[in-house]
Amino acid sequence: MTTSAQHDVPLMSDDDRAELDRLLTALAADEWPQDIGEARKFYDAWGVPVADDIKVEERPGGHLLTPPETDGPLTGLYLHGGGYVYGSLRSHGHMVGELARAARCRMLFVDYRRAPEHPYPAALDDAVAAYGSLLADGLSAREVVLVGDSAGGGLVLATLLKLRNSGTALPAAAACISPWTDLTGSGETYRTLEHEDPMLTKPVVELVSASYRAGTPPTDPYISPLFGDLAGLPPVFMQVGSREILLSDAQRFIDGVRDAGGTGVLEVWPGMVHVWHLHHSRLAKAREAVTRLGGWLHDQAAGAR
């Protein structure tokens, strides 16, 4: 079964534009450090505390975030962004908690190993192991959904390919925010949106790509899932901003899923930037996107059970 893209994405209002302008001005005020350790601290500092009513429990390989209301055993497995180099519970936990609330499910935040200390395939191995741990806990694959942003979105898709190719039961659905699906950087929006994207540049993308790949060809499907066989995947939902150089990464992947006979849903949010969801405390459009994504995940999992 194939599914067309949704076309009812909310447009930006004048208030939305003002909110986004204030956010981008604030983010541009600080210069990104060159040292990896300092850059990780800088990236983490963008985060805000997890909401008080979200329970956070440490568990092997990550943290389990549980909102006040959940729908049975439904559990999400979350893979964070940050170019496989940056990102942690501090930078992403608050957003993951709100997504768990919107989906009415627990979320396992995976603390996968990061490059350059741990290049490919460490992150993929950790993601596959985390999924296996949920099944070992007694969950059915149909009670699990995969979610990720940016590099974590690409890692979600690579994990799906790895699970399918190994004969492991696949999750009910997968959702990606601003996913990085092609580490070759061949998408047309790397060129056409180069001067429109205020968050990402091609040189930065190439730098973290080299750190993660450590010599593995960027066309390897477990590195760039866009180049994999996309048949037999569960439903895939993507949200991406219209100003992102990664826009074509999402568009081409969803086209590939549909061409392979699968269900792919793409939302392109006008005026939005890379993983705007992280700024839900400042942007109404981020809160709207989190609500829609969480609702889709819940609906897909409910329908699969």
TrEMBL record:
<protein>
    <submittedName>
        <fullName>Alpha/beta hydrolase</fullName>
    </submittedName>
</protein>
<dbReference type="InterPro" id="IPR050300">
    <property type="entry name" value="GDXG_lipolytic_enzyme"/>
</dbReference>
<keyword id="KW-0378">Hydrolase</keyword>
<dbReference type="InterPro" id="IPR029058">
    <property type="entry name" value="AB_hydrolase_fold"/>
</dbReference>
<feature type="domain" description="Alpha/beta hydrolase fold-3">
    <location>
        <begin position="77"/>
        <end position="277"/>
    </location>
</feature>
<dbReference type="InterPro" id="IPR013094">
    <property type="entry name" value="AB_hydrolase_3"/>
</dbReference>
<dbReference type="Pfam" id="PF07859">
    <property type="entry name" value="Abhydrolase_3"/>
</dbReference>
<dbReference type="GO" id="GO:0016787">
    <property type="term" value="F:hydrolase activity"/>
</dbReference>
